[in-house]
Amino acid sequence: MGRIVVEVMPKPEILDPQGKAIRSGLERMGLNAFADVRQGKLFHLDVEGPVTEEALTAAREAAGTLLSNPVIEDVVAVRETTAEEAAQ
Prior knowledge:
The protein is α+β, with helices and mostly antiparallel strands. The chain has helices at residues 17-28, 53-65, 83-86, and strands at 2-10, 41-47, 73-80. The chain has one domain (2-86): Mth169, Chain: A, CATH 3.30.1280.10. The two termini are 14 Å apart.
């Protein structure tokens, strides 16, 4: 079984209140190494058999139409998982 990963992030010009809340929480925990936090979405799309170019094309279409809101989000990546990711 193959897996495709789709990463979606808010566009840079869009406010990210969840990211700001996470950064604030990190600061309260004493974790001050981070200048900013942006929260996005990660999707795992499993396919029967190996990942094919056809499956990647379908995943790109789904990413641009259903998995993201193109007005406020960018699709950052659509890719096959690595062996290390698949083992997790």
